[in-house]
Each structure stands twice: as C-alpha cells, then as structure tokens.
Amino acid sequence: MEQMFNIFKLGTDDVARIAASENEPHTHDYEELLVGVKGTVEHFIDFDSQLIEAPFISFVAKGKVHRVVPGLQKGECEIWGIRFRSEFIAETTFQLYSIYHDNANMALPPDRCFKRLETLCQLMEDEVKAEEPDYSVVRHLLSALFTMIEAERRKLEAETEHTLKSQSTTFKSFLKTLEENFRRPEGVEFYAEKLFMSSRNLNIICKNILQQSVSEIIETRKLIEAKNLLLTTDKTVAEIGFELGYSEKSYFSNVFKRREGITPGQFRKEKKTLIS
Q: In this structure, are residues 244 and 250 in contact, taking their beta carbons and an 8 Å threshold?
C-alpha cells in the first residue's frame, strides 16, 4: 500500500469474487481494521481459524500471517476495511499491538455503540473522497474509532470476567515502559531490569506475542516516531535521529534504510508528495 491511509467497503458482490480467488494466507506491511456490519468472516490468524458473525471488529497488525474469507448473513455482507501505516497514528499503534495480539477478533452487540462505529467509518470515507481531503481530520476520526472500540472491549471483558494471561500483562508493561523511554539510547537490558526479569525471558515473551525480539520492537517504535517526525515537522534528519537516541546521523540513516529500503530524506519527499 503506497498511501498512508485507505478505507473501503466489502459488499455482497465481493463475497463470490474473493471465494473464487486464490486468497492464500499472507502478511501486510500496514495495519488493518475490519468493521463487520453485516455478513460473516472466516478469519485465519495466529495459525487458527475462526468464524465470526457481524457485528464484529478484527484488527490485523503489520506482519501477522492471516487470511480473510467474507460470507453472507441472511444474503447480505457489509464490511468496512481500514488500512493505515503505523506512523499515521503513531501514538496509538503500539497500544493496539498489546490489546489485540492474542485476540484479533471481537464480536460486538448490535447496539448504539456499534452504530456510532459505522458513522465514524462513513465520515472517514467522506473525508477521503473530498476534493481536498484533510488527513488530520481522518487521523482524529480513526483515533476516536479505536477509543470507542477499546471502551466496548473493556465492557465485554468485565462482563465475562476475563483474566489476562501473565505474558500478556508483562508485554503490556513492556510497551508502556517503551512508550515512556523509546527516545533514550537504551537497549534490552534496560527494559528487562525495569520489569524485574531477565533479557532472555523478555525476548521469549516478545517473540511469542509479536514475533519480534525486544531489540526489533524498540527499533520499530523509534522508526514509527521517526516517520511521524519526518512528515509532521521540519526538523533535519540529524535532529530527528538525535531526538530518538541515535548519536550519529549516519547510523540513524543506515538503520532507517535497512528497515525501509530508502533513506529518511527520500521517505519524507515521497510520502509528503502522496498526502499533499
């Protein structure tokens, strides 16, 4: 996906089209949220397959192996699809990883709250289709959408008295600590000590949950913020690298290029062209 944000809707006609396609399990280099209004979805993710009936939401983190097969419910299907780059809502993305890493799919009651989710999706689509779309508006609407979903998730969690597993709790603590310290030049040992555990055990938890090592997750968070700063500020590449704990501009640029395939300057030029 070239653009920073995209929203679309799957309808009844798409069910047969997708069923006839190869549709093998695959990964994305972007985040994806599905909001099911009508119909069903057979969702293969985390090496498990689950059939969900609307209304539902499903969040697929970047890099997760998955496959979606939509189906009809009383002859109908209506599913919103929202795709966005991590840096589009950098302050929220890592929270989403911790919330949905072990439960990508969530059935919701067809109440007033879900109707409001539909309204937000429609508002985002309307803004994107405008003659001169304002992506700052879209960003706020998307953040509001996730806030409402999280509020609904907490209600359901309280109703079912769901208890988080130990690894999930530790992982969330790690992400909270990372969010407070990722701008510092700290490595795995720093975070392991903060959580009163060994680097080995923290790496095991991160590998199990996000299929990344602690170092990779730290680097990913830094690069998400780097992209955000490249697009939203006029700071130089050197200033951004220093702000994120890289003492040398060349090292920051090399890390960025190794992960993204282009230099920070090229990224800024290409993406600003796309969203201008």
A: no
